[in-house]
UniProtKB/TrEMBL annotation:
Pfam family, one: NodA
Matching InterPro entries: Acyl_CoA_acyltransferase, GNAT_dom, NodA
Protein name: N-acetyltransferase domain-containing protein
Organism for this UniProt entry: Frondihabitans peucedani
Domain N-acetyltransferase: 17-179
CDD domains listed in its UniProt record: NAT_SF
Amino acid sequence: MTDPAASATRTPYEPHFTITPEGELTLDDHEAVTAMLSRAFPDYSHWYQGARSWAGMQPELRVVARSGDVVVAHAGIRRQFVTVGETDLLVGCVGMVAVSPILQGTGLGTQLLRLVDAALDHLGVPFGALEAGEDVQPFYRKHGWEPLEGVTGHYNDFTADGASTLVSTDDGWLVRPCRSERPAWPAGDLHWNGQLV
């Protein structure tokens, strides 16, 4: 799936977006994504090595922008059930959202989130959900993501050697209404029952 707004007159190095199922990525694709993610997330670069292009749960779909053969932006999405209060809810878990450091501030992130919206719609989920640091939350809010105020989120975090710990955080949780309106999001804390993308 390609960006429906892409122009036929695109220059060779103008970023070209695709939405690709995980099973269609080649080894070269994984290596290119890994290289960009290790630059975008230097604190987690020990996870992104070789062709390991994920740090938590492996995505179902990838939104990828390339300039020539170089990956310059990326987001991963996976459908999963989470527990919110007493309700099991299907969401599109969004993670590994990144723009190559040298292209940040160019509008590429806005294009990326527009394609994330298209991917969430394609997956038919009522909501997208993600966890974001305080420094990038305004960016997501600007693009329609809404904070879950007063909600504690719980998820499993794994170390590089495979040990699991339960992590609980009280802020940084955002949702993107897709096929449901925001008031349909249940009340209560958020349990991922696994890893984040």
